[in-house]
Amino acid sequence: MRQIKFIPRVAILCLGAVTMSISLPLFVTPNVIGAEELSLIEKVKYFFLGKRPSKVASGRQRGGARRDRCPNVPDSLTALVPFDVDGVPFVEQTISDRPTFWFYIPYLPVSRRNAEFVLIDENEDDVYSATFSLSQKEGIASLQLPLTVPPLKQGKKYQWVFSVICNPINRSGDATVNGWVERVPESSTLNSRLKVATTREKISIYTEAGLWYETLTSFTILLKNNPQDEDLKKNWLNLQQTLGITRISSEGWILYSLPEPTKNLQKNHLY
Questions:
Q1: Alpha carbons 37 and 22: distance in angstroms, whole number
Q2: Which of 79, 118, 130, 133 is within CB 3.0–4.6 Å of 177 for a Cys-Cys bond?
Q3: Is the dihedral of CA 198, 141, 62, 118 positive or negative?
């Protein structure tokens, strides 16, 4: 069984420093008074980024990443996931067997750095580990678990860790973020609603169901399909700021998918 040693050096975003425009109880029934009247971005913040029941992983402490050879950047490497007021990530649910994860990566390709993603099960064993070359400009990147990874098991929690390798010789200097995911069953009602829903409608449906990974991925799909929608772009920038990305460009960051893992460094640990 592998001992997790990355926790003391995790770099996380602090939602406590961000002013919340909404602080209401979350994960209540969708027909709660006023919830249906919220705008798309307000609904996302209502269900995920205000007060919510404590469902965080135990024993995980907030901390800052130590940097060795990482470039100085205005905003740190950031995982696009909600945290509680103490900076501890919630265990976010998904109905996907291979969900998509999102990160703000502030480093330019001239740095020629690699990133590593590791998925760890409840026994602290690696389920998946891969290294990627960072070849894109500063922006928000997605990473979907590949088909070579066994589907996440329902009812099981997994921790994921995303690191930018700043000094391959001394990995203690990595810039690192982490989070949690739990796969839950998809109800027949939810399935029926999603089959006839537009992408915009799916965001609301996923939000009301408390499915963060699907909500965020659907939001980015909607944004990509409607690049001229100024209100949607403003909502996207609003969400980024709420998640701790403070230096927002007027055009917003580019959205891209991480490339295929570097083959000579890729490791798969199937369970």
A1: 14
A2: 79
A3: positive
- Residue 53 clears pLDDT 70, i.e. is over it: no
- Parallel, antiparallel, or unpaired for β 91-94 and 139-144? unpaired
**Structural domain count of the chain:** 1
Place of tokens 């800052």: 64
How confident is the model over 171-205, as pLDDT tens digits? 888 889 999 999 999 999 999 999 999 999 999 99
* Residue 1 maps to a domain: no
DSSP 205: H
Distance between CA atoms of residues 134 and 141, nearest Å: 10
**Per-residue pLDDT band at 207 (split at 50, 70, 90):** very high
Asked if residue 2 belongs to a domain, the reply is: no
Per-chain mean pLDDT for the chain: 75
For residue 131, which of 264, 269, 7, 255 has the smallest C-alpha distance?
A: 264
State the Cα–Cα distance between residues 257 and 139, nearest whole angstrom. Answer: 10
Q: How many helices (H) and strands (E) does the chain have?
A: 5, 10
Q: Distance between CA atoms of 181 and 172, rounded to whole angstroms?
A: 25
SS3 253: coil
Enter the tokens of residue 213.
């990974």
Report if residue 62 sits inside a domain: yes
How far is residue 71's CA from residue 106's CA, in Å, rounded to a whole number? 9
Backbone angles phi, psi at 253, to 5 degrees: -80, 155
